[in-house]
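Structure first, sequence second, as always.
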């Protein structure tokens, strides 16, 4: 049997699969705010990334709304370090000697971590994914380099540890929805 840490099979996720919850720096306080898809809004034609979003902060009560029709993904080697709806800096980011690690939410972070920790990585076959580059395929080369594994894992763990726990006791996570 495969040990889950040794083998990684690309689940073919793209960044669009992680946009139902984005953790950002709150515009109103120093805490973490959540950018969430408004429940019930499935987006035009069922395209959830383009559904209405709400920014909410449990710390200061900040609340903002944004229709999801104009997404902005900053370009550059570091990739998006802001959320595509409100342009707020991502909560989950860490600088390393090689570049910036970032994730929209804990599910996203965990996917990257499983990939980096794995010694055997299976690519999604090109005929499976079509033209769509998977999230894992898009990771920068320095993230994939075995020699950087320890450093990258430590940075990912720091990011994970920096996520505040919700008052209800549940970690801030998108869940299966
Ligand atoms: Zn706040």
């Amino acid at each position: 049997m495969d040990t889950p840490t040794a083998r990684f099979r690309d689940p073919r996720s793209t960044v669009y699969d992680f946009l139902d919850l984005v953790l950002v720096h709150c515009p109103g306080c120093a805490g973490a705010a959540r950018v969430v898809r408004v429940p019930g809004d499935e987006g035009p034609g069922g395209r959830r990334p383009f559904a209405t979003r709400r920014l909410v902060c449990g710390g200061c009560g900040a609340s903002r709304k944004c229709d999801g029709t104009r997404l902005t993904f900053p370009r550059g080697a570091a990739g998006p370090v802001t959320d595509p709806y409100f342009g707020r800096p991502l909560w989950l980011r860490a600088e390393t000697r090689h570049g910036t690690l970032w994730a929209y939410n804990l599910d996203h972070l965990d996917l990257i971590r499983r990939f980096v920790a794995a010694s055997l990585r299976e690519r999604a076959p090109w005929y499976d994914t079509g033209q769509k580059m998977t999230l894992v395929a898009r990771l920068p080369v320095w993230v994939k380099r075995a020699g950087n594994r320890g450093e990258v894992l430590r940075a990912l763990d720091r990011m994970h540890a920096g996520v505040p726990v919700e008052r209800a006791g549940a970690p801030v996570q998108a869940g299966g929805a």
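Margin note: Confidence is low (pLDDT under 50) at residues 173-177.
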